[in-house]
Specification:
about 0% strand, disordered C terminus, mainly alpha, MetI-like fold
Length: about 270
């Protein structure tokens, strides 16, 4: 028998959606407020968005965030994909043990991750700056890429790879023409998730950043301590739009990968 959903579940869901999304909507609305006072609406304006690009500190923070996000995404995507491919070929016990280690950066709280990396960098006498932020972001982003690619690999099967090898393909040819096309949507989705996490990260970056390596989330935190201004609302709105767009792209790539029919592509 099919059980009907209780009306209270729908009400609960609606209340949760309101609780989560109304503050975000308010930030977006007041980013177009002509008044500097957040409580008073005095008209529509785009001036706060224009002034952002004339602010040297905002541009410096944006450059730092993009530099860290791009480099950490590239490295973590390569390492996470390699880890997923390598652990696929070992026995279950070793895979479970190694997989558990790769899951740790996802499970442990960000504050512990940031503090532990700070202690590590201090012990190794590594000066805090952009390089330490990049290393920290690679540490947790790699795990997310590994999870996405592993999920894609687990649903792929080995039939096409075995067929390619039966037809005389070597290891590299099998990977290039069979495995890589099948897992490519997962790799792209993992990279987009890694980029989003790096761009939005505050907690870990706060611990391992130096004086000249302020990222956008850290800059926003510093400005909010002085009071919420329309410029901060505008900056937060841009970050929200970028984040949502990247998440939708990552989901699109995952759905595209799942919806693709398995085709044998053996050009040899």
């Amino acid at each position: 028998m099919k059980m009907k959903n209780h009306p209270l579940l729908g009400i609960h869901t609606l209340l949760m959606m309101i609780f989560i999304y109304v503050p975000i909507v308010l930030i977006i609305i007041y980013s177009f407020n002509n008044s500097r006072l957040a409580a008073n609406w005095s008209g529509f304006t785009m001036d706060w968005y224009v002034s952002l690009f004339d602010d040297r500190h905002v541009m410096e923070a944006l450059t730092n965030s993009l530099t860290v996000a791009v480099i950490s995404t590239l490295v973590s995507t390569v390492l996470g994909t390699m880890a997923a491919l390598a652990l696929r070929k070992i026995d279950r016990r070793k895979k479970a043990a190694m997989g558990g280690l790769l899951y740790l950066p996802i499970i442990i709280p960000d504050i512990i991750m940031g503090l532990s990396l700070l202690v590590l960098f201090n012990q190794l006498n590594i000066p805090l700056g952009k390089m330490t932020i990049i290393i920290a972001h690679i540490t947790f982003s790699m795990s997310y890429v590994y999870v996405v690619v592993t999920t894609r690999l687990s649903g792929m099967g080995r039939q096409l790879e075995e067929a390619a090898q039966d037809l005389g393909a070597g290891s590299w040819q099998t990977f290039r023409y069979v495995t890589l096309p099948q897992i490519f949507p997962g790799i792209v989705a993992g990279a987009l998730i890694a980029f989003t996490l790096s761009l939005d990260d505050f907690m870990v970056s706060f611990f391992v950043s130096g004086p000249s390596s302020t990222t956008l989330p850290i800059y926003i935190y510093g400005q909010v301590k002085r009071g919420i201004s329309p410029e901060i609302n505008a900056l937060c709105t841009i970050l929200i739009l970028v984040t949502v767009t990247l998440i939708f792209l990552a989901q699109f790539m995952l759905n595209r990968g799942k919806g693709q029919k398995k085709k044998s592509m053996l050009p040899f």
